[in-house]
Amino acid sequence: MKKRDKIIYWVATAWLSLGLTSTAIIQVFSIQTEGAGGGQNVDHLGYPHYILPLLGLWKILAVIALLSPKRPLLKEWAYAGIFFTATGALYSHLIVGDTFGLMAPALLYLVLIAVSWYFRPAEKKLR
């Protein structure tokens, strides 16, 4: 693997992990914000508040899986789960007619997921 590819992988994975961790903290501890992951956003999209701690827990588990050494199958599941969550968020924002600004976090997650997954080292891939 080229050094450039490793740098791209780690930058994308670190940024993805930081984003997931920060929104997970907001969701698990029910911190009220106006941004992504907060209770007002859930109200706006029509989802119940009790879903937030579960989403937050899943995000924390995904970060652990992504950053743990080896375990390629677990990483694939983490990438898939994050992808499903981000596409679900994007779809929800589209359905309620939100602006691009409100969709941007989900789009950023999708880009980071794709870049991290594509540039992952060989030992982190399923064979």
UniProtKB/TrEMBL annotation:
It is found in: Membrane. It is a multi-pass membrane protein. Keywords: Membrane, Transmembrane, Transmembrane helix. One of its GO terms (cellular component) is membrane. Its main location: membrane. The chain crosses the membrane at residues 7-30, 50-68, 77-96, 102-119. It comes from the Bacteria. InterPro entries: DoxX (IPR032808), UCP030066 (IPR016944). Pfam families: DoxX_2 (PF13564). This is DoxX family protein. It comes from Sphingobacterium puteale.
